[in-house]
Structures are given as C-alpha cells and as structure tokens.
Amino acid sequence: MDRLTELRTAIAENTVPGGSAYGRAAAEVILLSLETQPGADVPTVVTDAATWLVETKPSMTSMRTVAAMALAAATDPDPRASVVRQMRDFIVESEQAIARIADHAEAFIKPGSKVLYHSFSGSLLHLLGRAAETTPDLTLMLTESRPYRESRRIASALAHTDASFVAYSDASMSLAAADADLVIVGCDALFVDGSFANKIGSLPLALACRHAGTPYYVATEVSKLYPGDPDDVAMEQRPSSEMAADWDLWASGRVEVRNQFFERVPADLVTAYLTDRGVLRPQEVGARTH
Q1: Same domain, yes or no: 115 and 90
Q2: Which residues span the domain enclosing 164?
Q3: At a CB cut-off of 8 Å and minimum separation 6, what does 69 contact?
Q4: Where do the TM regions start and end (predicted)?
Q5: What is the value of pTM for the model shown?
C-alpha cells in the first residue's frame, strides 16, 4: 500500500491518533496528491482532496483549517509551490504547538495530583507525558472512552514512568470526577463561542465536574479554531457495528444502534483552554479569529 492510500484509509477508518494528527495527515494527503499528479491542474487536485477530507471527517476542524489554507494557496501565481510550502509549514508548526502545550504541565499539575483524562489526543499525551516524567506521586485516572477505549493508549504510552494509573468505566465517570483534583481532555474542534467538540463522553464528564466542583481543562492547538457557526460542523456518526457487532438482536434488525462519536461541550462548563498560545478562558477564544 502506498503512503497516500495508507493515509486515506487511516482517515476513513478513524485510526489516526488524535485531532492534531488528523490535521497533519490532511496536509500530507494534499502534498502527496500533488506529488502523484505532477501535470494536473493544482486548484482541481487541491479542491478534490480538500472536499474529501472535510466530508470524510466533518467533526475535525483541523481538517477544515488545512483545507482552507490549501485552497487559498492554490489561487497564488505559483499554486503548486505555494500549497506545498503551506502544507509543510503547517505540519512543522503543529508538531511545535503540541510541545508548547506540554509546557503547561508544571503550572497545573502539582506533586501528588490526581488527574483524570478521557479518550486520546496528541496534545493530551504530550501534556500528561511531561507531567508523568516530572511530577512526583502523580496519579493518572482514565475513563474507558468506549467503544474504542482510546484512553488506554495514553496509559500504555506512559507505563514506563513512575505515575500510578486508575481506570474507571464510562458509567462511573461521576465518581472519578469527584475523586480527581482536575480533569484534562483533548479537543477535536474549537469554536468562537468558547465551546468545543471532543469524543463522546466529554459532555457528561464536564457535567460531572461541575457537580463535583472539579476544574475541567481542555488541551488544544488554536489551529483547531473554526471561525464560523458551530452548527456548520456536524458531529460524526460511526458505524453501528463498532458497538454491536456481537449482538444478535442488533444483527436481526430489531434494535437501532446510534454510535455518535463526537459531541459539543458548552463554554460555561470549561475552566480554561491550555493552548499553544497560552491559557485561554472560554470567553477569550473568539478573539483568536482576529
């Protein structure tokens, strides 16, 4: 399988690790689409690739950011060179942005802290990784994040550190929130009204934090900010089989299974965003569009 096919398959099958990585994968898809079609009309190639990316992963605003950058660059006098430069710069900047987000670890995660997280993101992994390497007596608490159970991936990646780990079922996240000193989640889409979208389960976790009085932080790159109406960004529905493949009653057609993969969390449930451009309160997010 060539690299372009590999990337497109991973994007379509939802196996790219996190929203930031989806943005970098999108940039690489556009680069490879141009590379494999050296004589083709650049605006056409970019439009086709950008349309496919956004339609395939509608909830990932990093895809929309990359698509918009590429489409704008494709109108330049030397469109091929401009698009290639923009996509390469985006990949480098995204990797640097994740490293800057990890710099928040020391300020927010103190020795002896119990930190609860949900699902997986590259920003979250780097932030918690920094904390696990530098913070004594750290406990990382994780929900399952069904149906994929992505939270386990961070625990596996950090198992070599001295951090302790405690896992909770998604159904018991209110107990976990009450026991945690703070909660940090990733972000797949950031909106100008201060809300965000992330893996399903992020909203009930935020509500549990409000009930328990536990701070609820979101680790994200500002490049995920969508400047338009949040309602423009559809919340992706995944195949029912991911939840019910081994359930005969579903297979018979008797039961409808709804497998929504992302959901929005309103701004008033977010304590702050830990970003590559500093700590932002929800009401400050919209200013980043200017």
Answers
A1: no
A2: 103-289
A3: 86, 87, 90
A4: none
A5: 0.94
